[in-house]
UniProtKB/TrEMBL annotation:
Residue intervals of the N-acetyltransferase domain: 8-161
Alphabetically ordered keywords of this record: Transferase
Gene Ontology molecular function: acyltransferase activity, transferring groups other than amino-acyl groups
Organism in which the protein naturally occurs: Paenibacillus cremeus
UniProt xrefs under InterPro entries: Acyl_CoA_acyltransferase (IPR016181), GNAT_dom (IPR000182)
Matching Gene3D superfamilies: 3.40.630.30
Record's protein name: GNAT family N-acetyltransferase
Coiled-coil region: none
Lineage top rank: taxon: Bacteria
Amino acid sequence: MNAMLNSMEKRLVSRFIKKRGTQVLNIIKSADEKIVVHYTTRTEESEYLHMYADIIKNRRLIRPPLPLGIHCILKNKDEIWLGRLDVYHHQINKGYGTILVKELIQFAQEHGYKTISGYMSAGESAEHRSRLRHFYSKLGFELQDASNFSMHLHTPVVAPE
């Protein structure tokens, strides 16, 4: 758990993360003092990776009508295809999408993936596509054209013991 959480917050979080089949990836305190629990329900044999984030504020779980999440396909042992990032209008510009994508990057590095790639749908409005392009580029993704983006990963260096 993140060292920024006090003991009361850790106890509170532990009650919310006791979900069947859930693996907690990280617990972060956001800039606006909300606790973000980032978790997955993936099993080792699945080719799909779904990561979610729950938000806790003032000792209550904030469950939006549509969950925060990132949905990927593990295409092969080297590449993850980012199929969808679910951050809805009232959640934009609060850092939740950044948290989800950074956790995906960390997951990919820890599991030896070399590339994360994705596609922005042509059905998005021009303004939304512009925001997505800015979002992915600020996180280090290369924009190949109007729709495609990718990131080539480097394996994290582990310090010798």
